[in-house]
Specification:
Helices cover 34% and strands 14% of the residues. The protein is of the alpha+beta class.
Length: 279
């Protein structure tokens, strides 16, 4: 039995849901049966637990306290190659403020209430009692690990675990996005086309949205990946000139939700597509 598995079993006995991490502090990838969530896995559920596949495929959602699962034949290879043990903070009623460098630690000491701290390779984990949504990059060098997230197991640390303060909750509150501009006549040429923006043509845009809806509706597997690729295609063609409206986006989201995607999945896929295109 590996040392990582011994650690995992000890933590699981204390009610801490754990999972193995490979090099790079990443969960093990999905098995072939679960690739692109073709199995219908539950990576967005709010409590830990596996999908129908017994392997540790779904990141934080694979975290478990069941010793029979941790020692099952399906997990043997994962523990043999594990580089670290992680846990799901939200599954044990905790929130971890991950401070990734000295500057972030200094900021926390000036800003946040004292609590239990755990030393990391480059900074510290500040552990609070209470849960909230996980959120990365809330400020330079600061991530929040709680619900739907995982953090490395690095020991008990020092100090007393304090209640989750409003100052930490406020870090995850995003500024509301500016309202999307409604369609309007355009006199400035679309960059690279040298003329009036062709995306203003109602027929062209309508055909593009209809094709996108059909592509999502027709997906028989890998629905989440299909939704993301479709959003990416729509935004790459129609997203830079202001021609998309809330009505168009709603049609795309409705099509995705009709295939079983959650609203959060849709929003994440849309945001990721915007980020990929630098928009």
């Amino acid at each position: 039995m590996s040392e990582h598995l011994r650690t995992a079993l000890r933590l699981a006995a204390d009610g801490v849901p754990v999972l193995p991490l490979r090099r790079g502090k990443l969960p093990f990838g999905n098995c072939p049966a679960c690739a692109l969530n073709a199995c219908g896995g539950r990576p967005n559920m709010k409590t830990p637990g596996p999908c129908g596949c017994p392997r540790p495929c779904h990141g934080w959602a694979a975290a478990t306290t069941d010793p029979h699962v941790l020692t099952s034949s399906a997990w043997v290879s994962a523990w043999r190659h594990a580089a670290a043990v992680a846990y799901h903070p939200g599954g044990t009623g905790l929130t971890v403020v991950d401070l990734d460098n000295a500057a972030a630690v200094a900021w926390a000491r000036e800003t946040l209430p004292a609590t239990r701290t755990v030393a990391t390779t480059r900074g510290e984990h500040w552990v609070y009692r209470g849960v909230m949504p996980s959120s990365n990059g809330v400020r330079p060098g600061v991530d929040i690990k709680s619900l739907m997230g995982y953090a490395r197991c690095l020991g008990n640390g020092t100090g007393v675990t304090a209640p989750l303060p409003d100052a930490v909750r406020a870090l995850a509150v995003r500024e509301p996005a500016p309202p999307r501009r409604a369609p309007q006549s355009r006199t400035v040429p679309l960059r690279g086309h040298g003329g009036e923006c062709p995306h203003r043509t109602p027929t062209y845009l309508e055909r593009g949205i209809s094709m996108a809806v059909q592509r999502i509706t027709g997906a028989r597997s890998a629905v989440h990946a299909t939704v993301y690729r479709t959003f990416l295609a729509v935004l790459s063609t129609h997203g830079r000139c202001g021609c998309l409206t809330d009505a168009h986006v709603t049609r795309l989201f409705n099509a995705a939700q009709a295939k079983g995607e959650s609203l959060r999945h849709c929003a994440d896929a849309w945001t990721n597509a915007l980020t990929t295109l630098g928009m």
